[in-house]
Write a structure and sequence with these properties.
Blueprint: E1 8-15, E2 45-51, E3 63-68, E4 75-78, E5 90-96, E6 101-107, E7 118-123, E8 134-141, H1 168-212, H2 218-226, E9 230-231, H3 234-240, E10 249-252, E11 256-263, E12 268-275, H4 280-293, E13 304-310, E14 313-319, H5 326-330, H6 339-359, E15 363-365, E16 374-376, E17 382-384, E18 391-393, H7 413-417, H8 424-440, H9 456-465, H10 483-496, H11 507-514, E19 538-539, E20 546-547, E21 566-573, E22 583-587, E23 590-592, E24 595-597, E25 610-616, E26 620-621, E27 632-643, E28 652-659, E29 690-695, E30 708-713, E31 720-723, E32 733-741, E33 746-753, E34 760-767, E35 777-786, E36 792-806, H12 829-860, H13 873-882, E37 886-887, H14 890-896, E38 905-909, E39 912-919, E40 924-931, H15 936-949, E41 960-966, E42 969-975, H16 982-986, H17 995-1015, E43 1019-1021, E44 1030-1032, E45 1038-1040, E46 1047-1049, E47 1062-1063, H18 1069-1074, H19 1079-1095, H20 1111-1120, H21 1138-1151, H22 1162-1169, H23 1194-1200, E48 1203-1204, E49 1211-1212, H24 1218-1223, E50 1234-1235
Parallel strand pairs: 9-13, 37-41
Antiparallel strand pairs: 1-2, 1-8, 2-3, 3-4, 5-6, 6-7, 10-11, 11-12, 12-14, 13-14, 15-18, 16-17, 19-20, 21-36, 22-25, 23-24, 24-36, 25-35, 26-35, 27-32, 27-36, 28-29, 28-35, 29-30, 30-31, 32-33, 33-34, 38-39, 39-40, 40-42, 41-42, 43-46, 44-45, 47-50, 48-49
């Protein structure tokens, strides 16, 4: 080249159609672009420019740049020597298909070694910008000066050889025809084999159905309806919802629509959630919700009625909530709620949360508690729903999930900022926010409110600190509320929403305060905010992150979700390494160890500034042009700004979104945070952007004279700022969280601040419609710059990002990619002939195959026209096992129990034997209860037990696995209890329960009874609580079983049964005299078992001394003499906690009080056992029972009930005489002592 600077030269790859030079492409356009096509994706050009003239988009006169469809380089470096000296320069351009790195090396051949050489690298996927076939070459241009630009030497190699046309095409056609013929013949053979197999299978099924024709079906029909969520056919739900009509549409969810329906068979209204078959996220949440909520049963949880997976549709069926959601009443147009209703709703929600956290078999972390997920039934009772994000955690363990999930405003700080770990504490935080919403009638976040009122929690806490808490009460209540209850609810809300999760209450403690059982908590007058650190390493996947260890790179695909289609993009980098291909580095940015250095100290190079940028390698779809929908996104990152000067700082770091091709300014301009050049600082007209800056230097007169956090819209002049007290001189870690809500259009920034010696969180909000600022597709990343006054080293430690966008008209994941050039359309006449020939053969084969398929369908599918696709069988089989008790075949249970051999027999009950078995399909042991064929009473109790216990779910109840009614056999399948029953340990010398085990058993049994009496949909009266019906699992946890005598009673009503039932010694006095069972009679039975646990004695011992025959009488007598501890089980040898022993026996005596009106509720008994309230005061002498006896003679008893003694094996009559009747229960722990209805 000559010593005149004008234009430059470029090596390029372009579409083979790009042979014409664009008009007006001289001077700085290098013969490649012009003002019209610059930045157009249809250019299909990637070029390496050696530019000698500085244009408005160039960093300097002499530089090397990499251009993609635009003259504005995606990456560039300044060549310190001149390119117009006439010297010969050597350049090497290479591309690595594995790492996707395009590398440029430039060197003066006369310089020694690599002195003064230039290296430039850009990570780019060429397939996104170039067609399959390209041309390669050089292009050059000049301007007013005319330098000579010449190529002296050119060497080119590639590893992928082009396909050569010509004669080989004939062979290709021949092989294609042979392949199609082979395909057709093979298909015919396969159809024939499948038809034969299906025909044989069908004959066997018809034979099996003929055998079933004579079976009794009435019980089966009842049990299928009663044993929990059922599988519906798609046709049933189409009829129920009037073909999913728009008139019956209740709403649109994240991955489906909800419709109102009516099931004529069950005579009930339902809400049907329909998920699209193409929704991957919807399927996962569908499976999660069915597996979890189908096991949960509580009066304050939305009930799952059933599910359907058929014809590619996923459908969930819930009970219908006529009063909609809590949110619609608090903030919508529905009827405002009175204060009593609000207070009751808060209680109900807390009760539901207590159940899922502590009282089910596992702890359920809901992860999305908010007012829109709290439904209201016809009586305005709260029902917590939407368990799609819920996770199961073993009791006593922390959460195993580290993915950020939930709704902004309800998510706990530790989940929002960095840890992302959901827990019981984070659920409690969400409950606290909802409690404040109920009391205040305000949303969790009000972006349009004044600064101090944006966050509901912060606003209420501020009023609390100033002693003006009641000013936060909902104005729409017009003062019509109980002030004490209002203060209590808001204080509990603040306590639950405490920023430090260690200082939040458990939901049980919150309930105690709401019930005024304990005083109000004392909270700090000013809201404290602790610091949260970045999460440990996680493995990134399409849907969630699970715990792992070590440094793991993200490889996340965008994906479709929901009926409206949702695009999700997410990754989580807890550290970085040089081999990662997910990050594109520009300027001075580069990986260093396990971090990213965005800037570096270049003073040894004679430079005073540095800038760098790290961007994610894929573009993000920010909004959908078809629907106008905006994305929701959240990003967390940790960084360090370390000043290299003792008392000065310079510039800062920023997170940004910008259009594709957003250029990096000259690294020598150490200002503008590495986002814009000197002349674009106030207004970036060429490239708009949105950034959140962490600024450490006042670049502009408009900048605050202190460190600050600001939100920038296409300008370094921030639209909104907030002071930032950082510690960058000491290089301390900073954490930031940035989120965007597409509904409110609010950009929210949460960041760590260090005022004085404390660490707090600050919040910055700004409302902006990103559609009006940025294009549909954007790049995003972290940028930094330094220089001028001092050097700063900017280090990125970790980076998490997640976005979700609902879009329309997307049919496949390929549609999610950014706009890419159309492939070349040129075809020769010869190829057209081949294409027509191939299409003809394919169409002919399709017709033949379709005909064969129709014949196959005609012969094999006349009676069954619809089937679940084989690829979805795994979902069906999982649901059959996961959605509650299943119906087993007799053959399955016969195999499991080895044909009910005596060696597997565990015991004999009142209406059949119990056998141990093993189900290979489920891979666990079971206990199978087999009802005697001739037992009419057994059939009734069988049906009762299946209907009731199949719908109960609690960690202290025996789980019903399934049932069978086949070949005139009635069988119940339970979870196997390896440690047998409680009585087998209490009354046998060779098996001793420690005191710790006994006390836990007593509390577990009480918890189960509280669930039955208070927390399930109806009140369940067990009517046969005794130590032989308390089973012990492998960890000696109590499990109450045998619900054959149980009855259902509506809450708030007394007993509806007047039939004598139960076991002598455990039956309350009023039951023996009146025949009426109640919650109080169950409490009596519990009290007897509590005394058995403490004393190690049976309720009746006919061989004992006169005053010690009845356990209750004996213990009460010792209590009256002040010698209560003498009743303690001698086998314990004094190895027990005396305070707990006294407590358990006192509770036992309180529960067996002869006057049912003076007994405690089971809830009150639990409070005493937990030492939450003092011991009860009971009379020293046991009161006598006085009531009108039941009109029942000894002869009627003996004719109605047969009691088999386990000692003599003889049948004996029972007398109405109390003394004789009680003595017959000497062996009350045996099933033979049951009195059956």
């Amino acid at each position: 080249m000559e010593n005149v600077s004008s234009g430059g030269i470029a090596f390029f790859l372009a579409s083979e159609n790009s042979l014409a030079i664009p008009s007006n492409s001289g001077a700085g356009w290098l013969g490649l672009f012009n003002e019209t096509n610059n930045g157009d994706l249809s250019n299909q050009i990637v070029a390496v420019e050696f530019d000698t003239l500085q244009d408005q988009w160039d960093p300097s006169n002499n530089h090397v740049g990499i251009d993609v469809n635009s003259i504005v380089s995606m990456a560039n470096l300044t060549w310190n020597n001149t390119m117009v000296s006439g010297d010969i320069l050597g350049a090497r351009v290479s591309y690595n298909a594995t790492s996707k790195n395009l590398h440029v090396f430039l060197k003066d051949p006369d310089a020694p070694n690599d002195f003064g050489s230039l290296n430039l690298t850009l990570n780019v996927e060429l397939r996104d910008f170039l067609p399959e076939k390209v041309i390669v070459g050089f292009s050059a241009s000049t301007g007013r000066a005319f330098p000579i630009q010449a190529i002296r030497l050119w060497n080119f190699t590639s590893t992928l050889d082009p396909v050569v046309g010509g004669g080989n095409s004939k062979k290709w056609v021949v092989w294609l025809i042979i392949g199609i013929v082979a395909l057709v013949v093979g298909t015919v053979l396969i159809w024939a084999v499948l038809w034969r197999i299906e025909r044989n299978k069908k004959l066997k099924e018809e034979d099996y159905e003929d055998e079933e024709m004579g079976m009794e079906n009435s019980i089966d029909e009842d049990l299928v309806k009663e044993t929990g969520p059922k599988r519906f056919t798609y046709k049933e739900l189409v009829v129920a919802t009037n073909n999913f009509s728009e008139e019956g549409k209740l709403g649109q969810g994240g991955f489906g629509s909800v419709y109102r329906g009516f099931l004529a068979d069950l005579n009930m209204e339902i809400a049907v959630k329909k998920i699209s078959s193409s929704s991957k996220q919807g399927k996962k949440e569908y499976i999660s919700e069915v597996k979890i909520i189908s096991h949960l049963r509580h009066r304050n949880l939305v009930q799952l009625v059933g599910w359907s997976h058929e014809r590619g549709s996923f459908v969930l069926v819930y009970e219908y909530m006529p009063n909609g959601s809590l949110e619609s009443h608090l903030f919508g147009k529905k009827t405002p709620l009175t204060w009593p209703l609000r207070h009751r709703i808060a209680h109900g929600l807390a009760s539901g949360l207590l159940y899922v956290h502590e009282e089910w078999e596992q702890c359920v972390v809901h992860r999305d508690i908010k007012s829109s997920n709290v439904m209201l039934d016809s009586n305005f009772n709260a029902k917590l729903g939407d368990f799609g994000l819920a996770r199961l955690v073993d009791h006593g363990l922390s959460s195993a999930t580290t993915v950020s999930a939930g709704t902004m405003g309800y998510m706990a700080p530790e989940c929002v900022i960095m840890t992302s770990k959901a827990s019981k504490e984070s659920d409690v935080f969400s409950f606290g926010v909802v409690a404040l919403e109920i009391a205040c009638g305000r949303k969790a976040v009000e972006p349009r409110a004044e600064e101090s009122k944006v966050s509901l929690v912060s606003w209420v806490w501020d009023l609390y600190g100033r002693g003006r808490l009641l000013e936060a009460a909902d104005e729409t209540l017009n003062g019509e509320f109980d002030k004490e209850e209002m203060i209590c609810l808001m204080t509990v809300g603040l306590w639950c929403a405490h920023p430090d999760h260690n200082l939040r209450p458990t939901i049980r403690q919150a309930i105690q305060v709401l019930n005024f059982e304990v005083p109000l908590p004392s909270l700090p007058s000013q809201m404290p905010v602790p610091m949260y650190f970045a999460p440990a390493a996680t493995l990134s996947s399409q849907l969630e992150y699970t715990w792992t260890s070590g440094t793991v790179e993200s490889d996340v695909e965008s994906m479709l979700d929901g009926e409206g289609n949702v695009v999700n993009l997410s990754f989580n980098f807890t550290s970085f390494n040089p081999n990662m291909h997910d990050i594109t580095y520009l300027g001075d940015a580069s990986p260093s160890g396990q971090v990213i250095q965005l800037t570096r100290n270049r003073k040894n190079e004679g430079l005073d500034q540095s800038s760098g940028r790290a961007t994610y390698y894929k573009q993000m779809q920010l909004w959908d042009k078809a629907s106008g929908n905006l994305t929701d996104f959240t990003t967390h990152f940790s960084f360090i700004i370390d000043s290299q000067h003792s008392n000065a700082t310079a510039d800062g770091i920023a997170f940004f979104l910008a259009p594709y091709g957003f250029p990096l300014p000259d690294p020598q301009e150490g200002r503008g945070l590495g986002l814009v050049s000197r002349d674009q600082i106030l207004n970036s007209t060429l490239y708009p952007f949105v950034a959140v800056e962490f600024d450490t230097y006042p670049n502009l007169p408009t900048d605050p004279p202190y460190n600050h956090v600001g939100i920038d819209i296409s300008s370094m002049k921030s639209n909104k700022t907030m002071p930032w007290s950082n510690r960058i001189l000491s290089g301390e870690r900073n954490n930031a969280s940035i989120s965007y809500n597409s509904s409110t259009k609010v950009l929210k920034v949460v960041f760590t601040d260090f005022p004085g010696n404390t660490t707090v969180l600050k919040h910055l909000y700004f409302q902006v419609d990103l559609r009006k600022v940025l294009p549909e597709w954007v790049i995003f990343g972290i940028s930094a710059a330094t220089g001028n006054e001092a050097f700063e080293i900017h280090t990125l430690l970790s980076w998490y990002f997640s976005s979700s966008l609902q879009i329309e008209n997307v049919t496949s994941p390929t549609d999610l990619r950014p706009p890419t050039p159309n492939p070349e359309q040129n075809r020769t006449n010869k190829r057209k002939v081949v294409l027509v020939l191939v299409l003809g053969l394919v169409l002919g084969a399709c017709v033949l195959i379709s005909g064969l398929g129709w014949l196959y369908w005609y012969f094999s599918s006349r009676k069954r026209r619809t089937r679940v696709e084989k690829k979805d069988d795994y979902v069906l089989s999982e649901f059959e096992n996961e959605t509650g008790p299943k119906k087993f075949s007799y053959k399955e249970l016969s195999i499991a129990t080895k044909n009910f051999v005596e060696e597997e027999k565990l015991g004999e009950g009142g209406f059949g034997g119990v056998y141990r078995g093993f189900l290979k399909e489920l891979n666990f042991d079971v206990a199978v209860k087999r009802v005697s064929r001739g037992s009419k009473q057994g059939i009734k109790e069988y049906a009762s037990e299946v209907k009731i216990i199949s719908r109960l779910r609690h960690r202290n109840l025996v789980q019903l696995i399934g049932w069978c009614h086949e070949e005139r056999e009635l069988l119940l399948v339970y979870d196997f209890m390896p440690n047998g029953s409680l009585d087998s340990h209490l009354f046998k010398e060779n098996s001793l329960l420690t005191w710790v085990m006994r006390y836990n058993i007593a509390r577990g049994l009480a918890s189960a009874l509280f669930y039955l009496h208070e927390e399930w949909e109806q009140c369940v009266l067990h009517r046969d609580i005794k130590s032989s019906n308390v089973m012990l699992d492998s960890n000696f946890n109590a499990k109450l079983g045998d619900f054959g005598l149980a009855r259902l009673v509506d809450h708030g009503k007394g007993s509806q049964t007047t039939v004598l039932a139960g076991t002598m010694g455990y039956m309350a006095t009023e039951c023996l005299m009146t025949g009426k069972a109640s919650k109080e009679s169950d409490v009596y039975s519990y009290g007897v078992v509590a005394l058995e646990i403490a004393c190690g004695r049976k309720p009746i011992n006919p061989l004992a001394k006169e005053g010690q025959i009845r356990l209750v009488d004996w213990v009460w007598d010792l209590y009256g003499m002040g010698k209560l501890l003498k009743a303690a089980d001698a086998k314990l040898r004094g190895d027990f906690d005396e305070e707990q022993m006294e407590c358990l026996m006192m509770v036992g005596l309180w529960c067996v009080h002869p006057d049912c009106n003076l007994r405690p509720s089971i809830k009150q008994a639990i409070q005493v056992l937990n030492f939450e309230v003092p011991l009860p005061s009971i009379p020293l002498k046991m009161p006598m029972y006085s009531a009108t006896p039941l009109n029942m003679s000894a002869s009627s008893l003996s004719s109605s009930y047969g009691v088999t003694s386990s000692e003599g094996g003889q049948t004996q009559s029972l007398s109405s005489s109390y003394k004789i009747a009680t003595s017959s229960a000497a062996s009350s722990s045996s099933p033979a002592s049951l009195l059956h209805t």
